[in-house]
Structure prediction request, 268 residues.
Amino acid sequence: MATVSSPVINKTNFSDNEPPEVVEARALAQRYRLPYIDLLPPDKQSPISYEELAGIPVDLMLRNQFVPLKREGRNLHVGMADPTNLEVLDELENVLNVRIVPYVATAGAIDVILRKGDATQRVMQEAASGFKISLVKETDQGDEILDLDRLATDSEMSPIIKLVDTVVYNAMESRASDIHIEAGDRDVSVKFRIDGALYQKVDPIDIAYHQTLISRIKVMSELDIAERRIPQDGRFRVRYKGRTVDFRVSILPAAYGENCVIRILDKE
Prediction:
């Protein structure tokens, strides 16, 4: 049998602006004729399947450096740092009772997803289910805990209140420095800034809820909910794990409605 050598990859074919890890991953994908996948695209939603993610032990994904992308029958498409390791592929197929369809992804992106948010969404969702924002207001007698829910009698506000509470909770659990809420033509994206990079950590929200969402944040920040034409800056404080955390809020008019940036000033 004639020996077939692996094709030589000319890395200069890839973008000079890409990090070395991405260049290496693309080269590996090309060498083994596998698709490369960007797990953290800056301009669209992550390709990860959160439904499949919720059913796989996190330690199994960490140990074998993979995340699920989608399921088609018995085929489970996964992003892997090293899809050339046949022993790992066999182990995963036996443990998960699936046929693995591998894609090449960077180890760094997999690590960020598993350790800083995406793989722990189910844990955060369970924890956040019992979390309720306690707003703190400074008075002459000291800090006063406010109950804004009693002021929100509109039934449409109830799920929005829970949504905002959950977003704030997940941002603090992810040790994010900022929350970005941006309106598009069809939906609203929520991104967290973690270690200087923006990550989409919340599924897109229907644009129909956009103004109610912004109004809730304005009420928390003591801003004018009727004013939508000029920028507004506000603040609020929250009791979280026994300490008080400050938040700075900036509301900015944009093409599809008001955007919001919330800076988290957590001293710990």
Q: What stands out?
A: Residues 59 and 114 are 9 Å apart (CA to CA). Residues 1-14, 117-128, 145-157 have pLDDT under 50 and may be disordered. The domain at 20-124 is CATH 3.30.300.160 (GMP Synthetase; Chain A, domain 3).
